[in-house]
Each structure stands twice: as C-alpha cells, then as structure tokens.
Amino acid sequence: MSAWVLETPGGDDNQKSLYNETGARRRRAHPKSRKGCTHCKQRRVKCDETRPTCGQCAERNWTCEYPAASKKGIRLSPSPQPSGRSLDSETPPTSISDSGSPAQGDLARSAIHSQVVAVLERSATSSRAQDPSTTQPHLAIELVDHFLDTTEMWIGSPVSQGIIQKHAFPMALHASYLLHAVLACAAKHLSWLRPEESKYERAAALHYTRSLQAYSVQLVYDIEHGDANAMISASGLLAKLTLINMVASYGEAPLSREASPTSWIRSMQGVKVILSTPSLRTQLQTGFLLPILQRYGPASPLDADMYFDPHDPHSPTSVLARLRQYCVVAPDDSDPYSPVIAQLAPFILRVPDNDSVDQMMAIVAGVESSFVELLDRFDTRALLILCYWCARLPHIDQWWTGPSAEIECSRICRYLSTVDDERIKNLLWYPFNSCAMAKASRIKSEERDGEVTVASISYG
C-alpha cells in the first residue's frame, strides 16, 4: 500500500497528505491564536485566551499580558533564554521596557491585580475553613491599591515605606507570608479608617493569621532557603500588626502571665534569627533593604558626663541619669539593661518622629533573650525600660503607634506603682507624663480632622 494515504477515506485526491515522503506523519497544524497573550505567542503554544490570566500563565505564575494592552511607549521584547533552562521554566520570557510612561504603570498595576487574585484563588481552593467575603477579587484589588497608593506615613519611616511599597509585590507573589502580611496591613488600616465596614477587619484577621502561619513555617523549618528580603519585610509588617492585635486582645487587663508584654515582643524576635543566619545575611548585605537594616546596629555609648540636675529633675538628661542609676548591676554580673537604655536614650533626649520608626522598632526586635526573660518574670527594671519605650512610641504620628503603646504604658505604670520603692515612683513620672502628652496631642489632631471617634482610646 502506498504511503501516500489520506487521513479521511474518500477525501479529495488534491487534499494534502498528513505524511511526508519518508512516511513520517506531518505535525498537525492548529488554528493560530490571533488574540492570545504575548507569552504564549512568543513561546508558540496554544493560548486559551482566558482573561485576565490565561491557563498557561496561571500555571507558571506569570504576568499575563495581551497585545491589546500595549500602548505607545510600551515595548515588549523577548528576554534572552538563560543557558541550561527550558522554555517551560518559571521565568517569564518577556519583559516590559522601562519607558516610564503612565501606560506602563497602568499595565504593571493590572498585572499585580491579576496575579494576586490568582494566588488567593489557588489558596482558597486548598482551604476549607474560610470566609468567602474576605477573598473576593474586588476586595483583594482594593487592598493592593490601598497599600500602593497611600502616601501618608503609615507603615514606617519615609525610607522604609518607599522601599516596601516599591518591592513588596514582586517578592510577595513568591512568598505567601509576605503577600498575606501586606494585605493584612492594608485591611487593618482600612478598618481603622472605616470601622463601620466589618469586611476590612475580617480580611485583616484572615490575612494576618495566614501570614503568621506561613512565616513561622519558613522561619522554623526552611530558613536557609528563604528570601531574606521578603522575610525581613514581612517581619516589619507583622510586628506592627501584632502590637495592635495583642494589646487589643487584653485591653486594660492588669499585667499577668496571660496578658504579658512579651507576647508581642517575642513576635519581633524573628529579625534576630534572620540576621544571624549567614546565607540570609549575605543576601541582605547586597539587597535593597540595606538602608533600613543599617539602623539595627549597636547603639553608641551614652555620654559618661550625663548627670542628674537637682534644679531640673524632669529634664531629659536628669531622667536618663536616674534611669541608668536605678538599673546599675553588680560589677561581676551580666548587664542586660544598659544596651537597651543606650538605644532608647536618643528618643528620650529628643522627640521621636517618622524618621525614627525603624530605630524604635529595632530596639524591641533586637533585645537579647535574657532581657525578654526578665520581662517574663516581671523584673521591675526591665519593665521600667519597656515602659519608657512605650511612652515614646506614641509621639510618632502614625495610625498604629498611639493607642496600643499608650495602653501598654498605662498597664506597666499601674503595675509598677504598686511596688514599694520610692525610686520607681519617681521614675514613673516621666513615662506617665510623656504618654499623656502624646495622647493629648493625638486627640487634638483627631478633633481637628474630625476623626476623634475613630482612634481615641482612654486608659484612665
């Protein structure tokens, strides 16, 4: 029988055979995808043309782009294929040129939206217990936009906020703990701005829990293979959320084992673990977070001439001199107090501001485990130092700094006021007065803005 046969018996003799002269079967041609996405076209694979993300891009977690989205000023160009990697690798084969045009920004934002929604949808299918209202695409997109578009200082210093808003989502799409931390932060802020809309608080709680779970797994079981920049970024966001959530959970309750300040302090200790891991530290030394991490170094020694002025006992130098004197330890004993006081001193000598956020949080994130253990035992000197920290944080004008720190300062003051030691009672004047001044300033600002009902908290 001749090798030149038709695929369909009885077909037209002029029909082209599906076999070539050697008898090998020709490759079946498929209808060209005229409306397929850019990635599929360049890889020459069939695109299912699903929008906003086609099946091929969704499977590989790529940014799905369609030619119709390209405008003047946007140039799509194929990236050189890295040696040793196949076309089916997880790196998208196209990139957007850096033209700086508004169209590019719109395209990038649209890509972020579609990828975040795709990640959350995949996560939702693997979870049974979940509130569907918190994972709706429109809510996820709203949280993304709020995180990227909020220009007031709300998640750190001007330097750290600019860095995290620029780099968070490219990292978060490959680190679920960071993605959920970002969305939790945005949802919590929106809940603070619009407390009447319960969907934000529910979304904040869900994403916060998922971020903590994923972050803990990465930190405990797979830290060596982690993305150091993503882990540090998540840690910074989770620290703020944990301070808010933990303090809110026990409110005005007296200090106790169940309502201890170490609950939220321990949550910040992951930074020390990351910085002490050689492979991660190497990543950070050449990464974009270096300007922030440089503020986590040891504090400069305090001026040895700092003294108590009997004519001005409430001056900053007098307060520091008295605090240092109270925390002196025996020469042969280890001193867990002086390093923390040295880091806190600049913010007692001057009023902290938005530029001080990173250093203030670094104080708590960097305390030694011995200091945390002293807090667990309700050591009066350790508690007093923490009380001073809580009294200074509310002077930084951000939505998360005031009420939580004020409540914690009040709880510690009440506990220490019961200690039968005149030195402690004298030292409590400063944190109580500092916290009261910060609270009065915040309430005045909220009244001026017509928002006093949103965030005011009374601690008696």
UniProtKB/TrEMBL annotation:
Q: Which Pfam families match?
A: Fungal_trans_2, Zn_clus
> SMART domains under this entry?
GAL4
Where is the region Disordered? 1-35, 72-107
Record's compositionally biased regions (Basic residues): 25-35
Task: Tell me which UniProt keywords the record has, alphabetically.
Answer: Nucleus
Tell me which InterPro entries the record gives. Fun_TF (IPR021858), Sterol_Uptake_Regulator (IPR053157), Zn2-C6_fun-type_DNA-bd_sf (IPR036864), Zn2Cys6_DnaBD (IPR001138)
Protein name per its UniProtKB record: Zn(2)-C6 fungal-type domain-containing protein
The protein's superkingdom reads Eukaryota
Biased composition annotated in UniProt, kind: Polar residues: 82-102
> Which residue numbers delimit the Zn(2)-C6 fungal-type domain?
36-66
Gene3D superfamilies per the record?
Zn(2)-C6 fungal-type DNA-binding domain
Does the keyword section mention Oxidoreductase? Answer: no
Instruction: Extract the GO molecular function terms from the UniProt entry.
Output: DNA-binding transcription activator activity, RNA polymerase II-specific; zinc ion binding
